[in-house]
Amino acid sequence: MTDNSPVRRKVFEELVTATKILLNEGIMDTFGHISARDPEDPASFFLAQKLAPSLITVDDIQRFNLDGETSDNRPSYLERYIHSEIYKTRPDVQCVLHTHSPAVLPYCFVDTPLRPVTHMGAFIGESVPVYEIRDKHGDETDLFGGSPDVCADIAESLGSQTVVLMARHGVVNVGNSVREVVFRAFYLEQEAAALTAGLKIGNVKYLSPGEIKTAGKLVGAQIDRGWNHWSQRLRQAGIA
C-alpha cells in the first residue's frame, strides 16, 4: 500500500518487523497474520495481502474497514474477519495477531485451561477463554475463522481479555500496540511450555489474582526491551 503518512508508514514497518520476529522466534507459521488499527482512522485497520509471511513487505499492506472489506483488488486472507470483528467490538484494541503458536496449540484441544504460572504470564488473566465453534455450528465445520458470524463469536469469547483460543485451531492475541502483541505472543508461548512441563512434574501453583494484577503492571512496562532484543536477533540472523 502506498501512503505518504509517516505515522501510517511506521505502522506498516512495525507490522513487517513483527512478522519477521514472530517467524524467527518460532511463534508464527505459514498461516499466521498480524494487523494494526489505522492510527488516523479507528474505523479501519491494516493487514498484509494474502502471502506467505516471510515474503511480506510494507508495499503488501492492505487497508480494511471494520466489516473486513477493502477496495484493494489483491488477494486477502480469508481469516481477516477475526481481525475486523475484534476491532469492531473492542475499541481499545490496536493490534490483532492470529497464529498456531506451537506450545499453546495443545490447550486448544484439552480440558486443562491455560493459566499463568509465572510473572511473565500475568497479562493472561486468571485463564484463557476458548471459543468452541461446535456450540453454534456443530461438529462438521472446517474449524476456520472465515466468516463474519463465526468471527463475531470469537470476539465475544475474547471479551475483555488479551488472548482467546480457537478450539482445535489456534490462538488470537490482542493489545494496545504491535509491540505489545508481539511481547504477549512470545510470553504466551513460553507460559504454555512452562505449564505443560509443570503438569508433568507435580501439582501446579498458579498465580493468585493479586499476583496477576501486580505482576502484570510491572512486566507490561518492559515491552520495548523485548522488541529491541528480538529486533537485534533479526539483524544478527541477517533478516532484519
TrEMBL record:
<keyword id="KW-0479">Metal-binding</keyword>
<dbReference type="InterPro" id="IPR050197">
    <property type="entry name" value="Aldolase_class_II_sugar_metab"/>
</dbReference>
<protein>
    <submittedName>
        <fullName>Aldolase</fullName>
    </submittedName>
</protein>
<dbReference type="Pfam" id="PF00596">
    <property type="entry name" value="Aldolase_II"/>
</dbReference>
<keyword id="KW-0456">Lyase</keyword>
<feature type="domain" description="Class II aldolase/adducin N-terminal">
    <location>
        <begin position="13"/>
        <end position="196"/>
    </location>
</feature>
<dbReference type="InterPro" id="IPR036409">
    <property type="entry name" value="Aldolase_II/adducin_N_sf"/>
</dbReference>
<dbReference type="InterPro" id="IPR001303">
    <property type="entry name" value="Aldolase_II/adducin_N"/>
</dbReference>
<dbReference type="GO" id="GO:0019323">
    <property type="term" value="P:pentose catabolic process"/>
</dbReference>
<dbReference type="GO" id="GO:0005829">
    <property type="term" value="C:cytosol"/>
</dbReference>
<dbReference type="GO" id="GO:0016832">
    <property type="term" value="F:aldehyde-lyase activity"/>
</dbReference>
<dbReference type="GO" id="GO:0046872">
    <property type="term" value="F:metal ion binding"/>
</dbReference>
